[in-house]
């Protein structure tokens, strides 16, 4: 297949864990992959590693920068919003500015991303917008006041989009990752945990790809992944 004929996937928040694995999975699935993140050096390394993937340095929380980054890419068949802003602390401890920043990354960036990419999907009558979330989208624990409100709002925004876009042929799904992702900093912090305590980024990527390619007669909106022994 000619590279120029391959469909385009856009992935935000491409870091060393989930984002990179999602980019790899879509490239393996026959896509050109636009990888969005702020870290130009990391993106350059991934660009050299992953065939048909290319770096787009961008802060998704900046609407003007996001629009400028997406403008030359053309129509996407799949978009994955994986960029995330997080913070820990009670409502008394967090810096309100941090909560605002996380809202901009998790919610407002999703809004702008959808407004910029889904019109072409509607015109084509097909496409997928997948959002990676976590358990904070479903519950507000005491120490997650700087994070959970933004993920809950993100889930509700995605649901509103799904109800609007579904009848137009565009699939929107929200993936709750109820697990600790296996990346270097979590391994360092949780040294006493066995390997099967963690969820592998490649496993998350496989589910994201699956959601983006579900048959139209069996679309999911809210999906969950967790290790087999995770209490829930």
Topology diagram in text:
Blueprint: E1 8-12, H1 18-28, E2 32-37, H2 40-49, E3 53-57, H3 63-70, E4 78-81, H4 96-124, E5 128-134, H5 148-165, E6 171-177, E7 180-181, H6 184-189, E8 198-199, H7 201-212, E9 222-225
Helix pairs in contact: 1-7, 3-4, 4-5
Give the tags:
Rossmann fold, 232 residues, single chain, two-stranded parallel ribbon, alpha/beta, seven-stranded parallel beta sheet, 9 strands
Low-confidence stretches: none
Beta-strand percent range: 15-25%
What's the structural domain tally? 1
List the total number of helices: 7
CATH fold title: Rossmann fold
CATH architecture: 3-Layer(aba) Sandwich
User: Which CATH top level class fits?
Assistant: Alpha Beta
CATH superfamily: NAD(P)-binding Rossmann-like Domain
Shape category: globular
Give the helix proportion (percent range). 40-55%
**Rounded Rg:** 17 Å
Order of strands, main sheet, comes to: 3-2-1-4-5-6-9
Work out the number of β strands: 9
- Termini distance? 44 Å
Structural class computed from helices and strand pairing: alpha/beta
The major β-sheet equals:
7 strands, parallel
Order of helices and strands: EHEHEHEHEHEEHEHE
Provide structural commentary:
The chain is α/β, with parallel strands linked by helices. It has helices spanning 18-28, 40-49, 63-70, 96-124, 148-165, 184-189, 201-212; strands spanning 8-12, 32-37, 53-57, 78-81, 128-134, 171-177, 180-181, 198-199, 222-225. It has one domain: NAD(P)-binding Rossmann-like Domain (Rossmann fold). The chain is 41% helix and 18% strand. Strands 3-2-1-4-5-6-9 form a seven-stranded parallel sheet, sandwiched between helices. A two-stranded parallel ribbon has the order 7-8. Helix 1 crosses helix 7 and helix 3 packs parallel to helix 4 (96-124). The longest helix has 29 residues, at 96-124. It starts with 7 loop residues before the first strand and ends in a 7-residue tail after the last strand.
């Amino acid at each position: 297949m000619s590279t120029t004929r391959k469909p385009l996937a856009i992935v935000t928040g491409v870091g060393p864990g989930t984002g990179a694995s999602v980019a790899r999975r879509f490239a393996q699935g026959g896509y050109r992959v636009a990888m969005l993140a702020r870290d130009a050096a990391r993106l350059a390394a991934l660009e050299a590693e992953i065939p048909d993937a290319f770096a787009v340095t961008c802060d998704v929380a900046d609407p003007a920068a996001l629009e400028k980054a997406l403008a030359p890419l053309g129509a996407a068949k799949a978009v994955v919003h994986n960029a995330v802003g997080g913070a820990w602390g009670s409502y008394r401890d967090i810096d309100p500015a941090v909560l605002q920043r996380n809202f901009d990354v998790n919610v407002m960036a999703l809004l702008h991303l959808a407004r910029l990419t889904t019109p072409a999907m509607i015109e084509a009558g097909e496409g997928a917008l997948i959002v990676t979330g976590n358990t904070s989208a479903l519950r507000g624990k005491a120490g997650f006041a700087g994070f959970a409100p933004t993920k809950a709002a993100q889930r509700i925004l995605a649901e509103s989009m799904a109800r609007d876009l579904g009848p137009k042929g565009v699939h929107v799904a929200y993936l709750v990752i109820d697990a600790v992702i296996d990346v270097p900093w979590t391994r360092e912090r949780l040294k006493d945990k066995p390997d099967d305590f963690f969820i592998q980024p490649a496993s998350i990527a496989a589910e994201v790809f699956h959601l983006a390619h579900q048959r139209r007669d069996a679309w999911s909106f809210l999906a969950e992944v967790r290790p087999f022994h995770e209490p829930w």
